[in-house]
Design brief:
homodimer, alpha+beta, 60s Ribosomal Protein L30, Chain: A, Phosphoribosyl-aminoimidazole Synthetase, Chain A, domain 2, 6-stranded mixed β-sheet, 10 helices
Chain lengths: ~300, ~300
C-alpha cells in the first residue's frame, strides 16, 4: 500500500537516504545526516559542504521584504558552517522564479545575499536560474576549517556544560528567522579560546537539536529551565520548541565556564543552560523552576 | 513601472547578477556566467563547483519514471563538470517534496541518483529535505580538475574545428534528456589525447551554446549543415535549437582531426560540424546543403 511522506516521516526518510546512498568512506568524515559534510581538502584543512533550500510559502512569504528573503537564504548555510567551527568561502545560488515576478523583487533578493556575503567574505561564484511557479532559493555553500578546529555534534563529553549564544523562541513572530546574523564571530571566538566539545546551530528547535547532539554523543542532556534565555514575550515552550533561532548550541568542559562568562563583556554572550549527563543516548529532560525533573516533548520543527 | 522577469529576460538577469554580485578575484578563475565555477584548490588542481535545479512541470513531469528523474538531476551537473575536463567528487542533494507524495516515488528518485553516482565515483555527502507543493531537486556538485587539464569556453582559436560527441535534437521527445549518460569518458579521452581548446555541454541547444563559446572566445562560428549528426526523426531545426542534448561541444586545432576521427573506433564518437572563423564575436552562421551561407536564429532554450 502506498505510504505518503508525511506518514513515513522526515527523519526515517533521512535515515533511509543515509543507508541507501552511495558513500565511499575514504575522504569523507561526515556525510548525510549532519548539516554539513566534511571531506578531505589540504594537509591542514577540511572542506565543508552544506546546502539549504527555501521555498515560498514554507520558509518565507512573498509579502516579506525581499532583501531579507535573500539574506536568510544565505544566512542559513553560513550558520551551518559556523556550527562546524569553519569559515564560509564560495556560494552557488539556484533560484526558481515565476515568469511574472517583478524584476525589482529579484534584485532585492540578491542585494540581501550580497550584503551578507560581503560581511563574511563569501564569494558567490555561480548558480542556476530556472522558471518555477513559486520562488525557490537553494544555496550551496563551500567552507573550510582547520583540521584542529573542526567541531562535530557527536563529541560532547560526560559532565560538559551546555551553552547557547543567545535568546531563543518566537523567531517567526519577531522576524528573527529573517534578519539573524549567523554566529560566525561567536564560533571563531569559541574555536580560538574555548575549544567546544560539540556544536550545532539551532534550526529545528532547542530540544530537537540538543537531541541530535545527545544522540550522536551517546549521552543524555539535562536542561535548566530557569537559565534558558528567551526572546521578548517568548514562553519556555517557545524557547524549547520553536525552530529557526539560528543560535549556536554547544558543549564545553565545566572548567571553561568562568572564561565563557568573562567573554560576555566582549560583545558576545554565552548562556549556560544545562549539562550532559549519563543516561540513554539522545534523551533530553529539564529541571523546572521548582527543581523537579520534567520530561520534554519530542516535537521540533516538522518538515513534512 | 514594474517589469516582469519574462519581459526582462534571463540573460540580462544573469548579466545583472554577474555585475552586482560580490566577487573577490583572488582564488576565483571563473565565476557567475559559466556553468561551472573554477576556484583555487591544491597546488596542481582546481576545485569545480556547479549546481542545477530541476522543477516538476518544467524539467520533468511526475508521470515520468522517478528513477530517471533522479538520474537526470545528477547527470546535468556531472555534464557541467565533464565540460571543464574535470571529474565529479561530492554531491549535495536538496529536495522539495509534497507531503502527500508516495515514499516509493522518492526512493526511486534516489535509486536513479545513486546508480549514476556509483558509475562515476560521486559521493552523495549530504543535502536538505523540505516540504514543497511540487517536486524540486537541486544538485550541487563539487569536482576537481588538474590545472593543466582545465578547458574553458573562452579559449577557442581562429581556424579551430568544432565538434560534438553525439547526435542532436528531440531529446524531450525521445527521452534522451532523462536517460543520457554524461560524457565523462569522452571528456577524459579528449583531455588525455587531444587537449580541446574550448568546451561546453549542450544544455540550451547547439546554436545557443555555440554562441556562448563564440562570444567568450571573440570569434565567429560557422556550422556545416550536412555534418551535424541528428537523432532519429530530428530535423535540422531540432538539432540546432532543441535543448538538453547534453552532448559535449568542443573546439580543437585542425591538425588533431585525424586523431579524433581514429578515436571513433574506441566506443567514443566525435563529429566535426564546423569551424571557428574571423568575424563578430558570438556570431553563428551555417553553410546549408547547397553550400550557401545561412543565418541561424537566436533562439535557444528559454528559461523564462
Amino acid at each position: 500500500m502506498p505510504q505518503t511522506l508525511s506518514q513515513f516521516g522526515e527523519f526515517p526518510l533521512i535515515d533511509f537516504l543515509k543507508k541507501q546512498t552511495f558513500r565511499k568512506n575514504k575522504d569523507v568524515l561526515e556525510g548525510i545526516g549532519d548539516d554539513t559534510a566534511v571531506v578531505s581538502y589540504t594537509n591542514d584543512k577540511y572542506l565543508l559542504l552544506t546546502t539549504d533550500m527555501l521555498i515560498e510559502g514554507v520558509h518565507f512569504k512573498k509579502s516579506m521584504d525581499a532583501f531579507y528573503i535573500g539574506h536568510k537564504a544565505l544566512a542559513c548555510s553560513i550558520s551551518d558552517i559556523a556550527a562546524m567551527g569553519g569559515m564560509p568561502k564560495y556560494a552557488l545560488i539556484s533560484i526558481g522564479l515565476p515568469a511574472g515576478l517583478d524584476v525589482a523583487f529579484v534584485k532585492k533578493i540578491y542585494e540581501g545575499m550580497n550584503q551578507l556575503a560581503k560581511m563574511f567574505g563569501v564569494n558567490i561564484v555561480g548558480g542556476d536560474t530556472v522558471k518555477g511557479n513559486k520562488i525557490i532559493i537553494n544555496v550551496s555553500l563551500t567552507g573550510e576549517v582547520k583540521k584542529k578546529n573542526l567541531v562535530r555534534r557527536s563529541t560532547a563529553k560526560l559532565g560538559d556544560n551546555i551553552y547557547v549564544t543567545g535568546a531563543l523562541g518566537r523567531s517567526y513572530i519577531n522576524g528573527g528567522h529573517l534578519t539573524f546574523i549567523p554566529r560566525i564571530n561567536d564560533s571563531q571566538y569559541l574555536i580560538k579560546h574555548i575549544k567546544p566539545t560539540a556544536m550545532i546551530d539551532i534550526s529545528d528547535g532547542l530540544v530537537a537539536d540538543l537531541r541530535h547532539v545527545a544522540k550522536a554523543s551517546r549521552l543524555k542532556a539535562r536542561l535548566d529551565q530557569s537559565r534558558i534565555p528567551r526572546t521578548k514575550n517568548a514562553t519556555i515552550s517557545h524557547a524549547l520548541y520553536d525552530g529557526e533561532d539560528f543560535e549556536l548550541l554547544f558543549t564545553a568542559s565545566a572548567y571553561k565556564d568562568e572564561k565563557l562568562m568573562r567573554a560576555q563583556t566582549r560583545g558576545i554572550a554565552f548562556f549556560k543552560i544545562g549539562e550532559m549527563i549519563a543516561g540513554r543516548g539522545g534523551e533530553v529532560d529539564m529541571i523546572d523552576t521548582n527543581g523537579k525533573i520534567k520530561k520534554v516533548l519530542k516535537k521540533g520543527y516538522i518538515h513534512f
